[in-house]
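Researcher: We plan to redesign the surface later, but first we want a full-length starting point. Tokens attached.
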């Protein structure tokens, strides 16, 4: 009987420890930035003259990005890889690694980013906190010349909607790191879901206050110019898997001992 009680206590302890395992580092992911050409042109006079994704995003130097011939994408959906350490940077680039640890088990649809460490305003962008790093660069043409944004970091500013008085702002921001940090787009009217260890985020692509103030006199803040979708996932760490396996073993042993106990 003493052995059975000890095993019960151990199993309960393991179940408790398994339950409190929270934030887990993301280990894979991808994103799609969809730009509506008409909406972007109408709001800003900008048009996408070239998109650098895949191998180009990972290997092109700053000079190559600026000098490559115009080749407007034939698809409005621009695919981005999610970056993880280690990161190598071509000359003049600012590619970074993802640092997000997300609480998949404690996900609350009403407060989907409660476990995401918040960033704070810094210069023309937001800095600090956790991020999901997206590998890709967008080059725009306009009557004013060439504008480039990319090497994005998706960051979260918890009080952003209140700061700017826009309830559509989710707090998620695509921060440009190409040449200098600056918030490019807010992700608005977000719908976030978790399935197992996979987080999916869908939302509108809104011109950020920083981008609007810096280039367009603050007249286009919050303009909807497209769509954003992100999918990231985590593979449980070895220690978590071992804890779960040990818990299952102990629970199984308790069950076997119960069967062997005399009535």
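Model: Full-length starting sequence:
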């Amino acid at each position: 009987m003493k052995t059975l009680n000890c095993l019960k206590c151990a199993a309960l302890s393991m179940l408790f420890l398994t339950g409190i395992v929270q934030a887990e580092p993301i280990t894979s992911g991808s994103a799609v930035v969809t730009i509506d050409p008409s909406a972007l042109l109408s709001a800003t006079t900008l048009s996408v003259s070239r998109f650098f994704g895949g191998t180009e995003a990972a290997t092109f130097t700053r000079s190559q990005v600026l000098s490559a011939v115009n080749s407007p994408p034939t698809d409005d959906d621009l695919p981005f890889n999610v970056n993880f350490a280690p990161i190598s940077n071509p000359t003049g680039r600012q590619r970074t690694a993802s640092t997000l640890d997300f609480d998949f088990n404690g996900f609350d649809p009403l407060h989907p980013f409660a476990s995401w460490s918040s960033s704070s305003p810094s210069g023309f962008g937001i800095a600090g906190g956790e991020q999901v790093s997206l590998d890709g660069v967008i080059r725009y043409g306009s009557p004013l010349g060439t504008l480039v944004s990319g090497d994005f970091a998706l960051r979260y500013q918890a009080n952003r909607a209140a700061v700017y008085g826009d309830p559509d702002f989710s707090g998620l921001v695509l921060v440009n790191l190409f040449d200098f940090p600056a918030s490019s787009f807010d992700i608005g009217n977000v719908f976030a879901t978790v399935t197992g260890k996979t987080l999916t985020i869908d939302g509108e692509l809104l011109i950020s206050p920083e981008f609007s103030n810096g280039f367009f006199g603050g007249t286009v803040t919050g303009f909807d110019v497209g769509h954003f979708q992100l999918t990231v996932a985590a593979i449980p760490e070895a220690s978590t898997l071992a804890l779960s396996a040990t818990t299952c073993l102990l629970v199984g042993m308790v069950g076997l001992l119960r069967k062997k106990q005399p009535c």
